[in-house]
Design brief:
Helix content: 55-70%
Number of strands: 2
Low-confidence stretches: 9-27, 31-40
Distance between the termini: 58 Å
Structural class: mainly alpha
Number of helices: 7
């Protein structure tokens, strides 16, 4: 019996000793079994096979964990924005249907979303390390963005309290909304 130019089944055999062998497998027309992904995944350079289902499951878990953390940070961001603006923001938006409050809350949440996305992007390492870094960077970013928002509102001389009393969309609300987005983007880049 002539030995096969292909390596043994990676699920039952030890991994190949070097990446070069993996390239030789491709040249010989060998392909890994369905559901198995081949690649160099360990630090000593050996070709390690990872079942595709394991790869997909761990990726899905990471996505779900970051999504939950992102939602929590957005909720925290909303309540921080609520504290920084006069009145109960959700009530002003829901019951009074105030366009100025809606625009300011929307721009503030978009800015928080930028900060959270940058926090996720900059986090690295193991999942628990990435989640912790995202939580810390996200909370610090929300605090910095809120302080910068309040300071800019004071420096610009535009009263958020007066804007929220107006029933028509005001130019000052548009200016502050764009400023909130710019501050969020600046903070997000600082996180990265």
């Amino acid at each position: 019996m002539t030995p096969s130019p292909c390596p043994p089944d990676p699920l039952t055999a030890p991994p190949a000793p070097a990446v070069a062998e993996g390239l030789a497998d491709v040249k010989a027309g060998c392909v890994p079994p369905i559901g198995v992904e081949r690649g160099t995944l360990n630090t000593n350079g050996a070709d390690v096979t990872v079942p595709l289902i394991d790869h997909l499951a761990s990726g899905a878990l990471a996505i779900a964990a970051y999504a939950v953390l992102g939602m929590i940070l957005l909720i925290v961001g909303f309540y921080v924005i609520d504290l920084a603006t006069p009145g109960k923001l959700s009530s002003v938006i829901k019951h009074e249907r105030n366009p100025n409050a809606t625009l300011l809350a929307s721009s503030g949440l978009a800015a928080v979303g930028l900060i959270v996305a940058a926090s996720i992007w900059s986090s690295g390492g193991a999942l628990h390390e990435g989640l912790l870094a995202t939580a810390v960077f996200g909370l610090v970013g929300i605090a910095v963005q809120t302080v910068a928002m309040v300071v800019f509102d004071l420096v610009a001389g535009i009263s958020v309290r007066e804007l929220i009393k107006e029933s028509d969309l005001q130019p000052g609300a548009r200016l502050l909304a764009v400023t909130h987005l710019a501050i969020g983007l600046i903070t997000a880049v600082a996180v990265i």
